[in-house]
Amino acid sequence: MRNLTIQRRKSMVAMLAVVQIFAEDPSGDVVIRKTRCRKLGEVKNGQTVTFSIGEEAVRIFALHEMFSRNYAHDFYDIPAGTEDILLAGENRVNLFTGHGYRFDRPKKKK
Fold this sequence. Notes:
The protein is 0% helix and 48% strand. The strands form two sheets. Strands 3-4-2-6-7 form a five-stranded antiparallel sheet, with no helix packed on it. A four-stranded mixed sheet has the order 5-1-8-9, with no helix packed on it. It is mainly β. Strand 3 (30-32) and strand 4 (35-43) form a beta hairpin.
């Protein structure tokens, strides 16, 4: 097992909303974008939370509300390994899909 730490930076955008964190899991009870998932927990504005995940590759989803799970979410693919993982992000303004949580992405080299 390894630890997955999710850091939600404080933001005025959707500051009262709770972000729900899900992990891809074939035996899960929630389906997000045709992927069966299980809920890991929740992250509040400005909070950092740690979850235990396996060592296999896994897709992590972040969303606010279940009814919008197929279009208003973000995901991050975690490769297989034994190292602990830190993912950070914040809620960002998006007038089309709501003010959802977005994981930080590495900058692409030019």
